[in-house]
Amino acid sequence: MSDVEKHDLSHHLEQAVQELDADSIGLAHNMYDATLEQLHEIVAFADRLKEGALVEMYLRERKAHGVNAQQLILPPKGYSGYKPES
Fold this sequence. Notes:
Shape: elongated
Distance between the termini: 50 Å
Helix content: 40-55%
Number of strands: 0
Strand content: under 5%
């Protein structure tokens, strides 16, 4: 596998999210030409992206509740995201 194949996940990510409302079967169908290693890299990236989003939501939740939110910290285990009451 070439270095370009190893590190260029953008093509596969773009393919995967062509339809924003696609379910997991649809997403998988759009990643048919990714190598197994690239699929593992996509999963690792998605995990980091999810953790980053949860950290940001936790920061916003702390700010909304008047808690000192000067620094980013990991949310408590099992945190599922901030859902402000409208």
